[in-house]
Amino acid sequence: MYTQESWKEAYHELVSTIVRMGYPKEFGQVIARNLGSEKTMRRMNAYLHEAGPGSAEEIADEMLAIMSDRERWIQKKEAERANAAYNEYLKIIYGIGLLLAGVCGISGIGVISELQAAAFPDFKLLQKIFEANLIIPFILFSALGVIGFYIATKAYVSSDNKQA
């Protein structure tokens, strides 16, 4: 983890490296301030030691490249966080959809069974389901409802835990 002291150390190292290369201290300070983070200042310092740029323009160009890389990295991390949140949302919606499909299916089977009550007035609801050959759809829709409830609640609980 970066601290205020380590940031100051990286800042002073970068400025002193640029001064040792023969450039004004102010130029080094501008480069360090524009880079902003300790990691980018250390990266620039490594570049100065390894590549030994021949002009202030090359140093400024590398500074811009490092800043661009850092900005891309920040955008990537923001996109990953947004994508993770969206995926959690989709899991909840998917679970609710399965739950609703299960409930609608079970209700539909109950309605079909009740409509067949005129043809089979002596049977109870489960007997009507068996007699109407609706047991397989009944089991499937019941399973959909249970799975949907499980997925929706699990996704909702895990999204709550991530926010805390």
Shape: rod-shaped
Largest sheet: none
Q: Topology as H/E string? A: HHHHHH
Provide a count of the helices.
Answer: 6
What is the averaged pLDDT score? 80
Q: In terms of per-residue confidence, which ranges show pLDDT below 50 for 5 or more consecutive residues?
A: none
Q: Work out the number of β strands.
A: 0
Taken as a percent bin, the fraction of beta residues is under 5%
What structural class results from the helix and strand content? mainly alpha
Distance between the termini: 22 Å
Tell me the radius of gyration: 33 Å
In short:
The chain has 164 residues and is mainly α. It has helices spanning 4-20, 25-35, 38-51, 56-115, 125-131, 135-163.
What does this structure look like?
With 164 residues, the chain is mainly α. The protein contains six helices and no strands. Helix content is 84%, strand content 0%. The model has no long low-confidence stretch (mean pLDDT 80). It has helices at 4-20, 25-35, 38-51, 56-115, 125-131, 135-163.
Features:
164 residues; mainly alpha; rod-shaped
Task: Summarize the SSE layout with pairings.
Layout: H1 4-20, H2 25-35, H3 38-51, H4 56-115, H5 125-131, H6 135-163
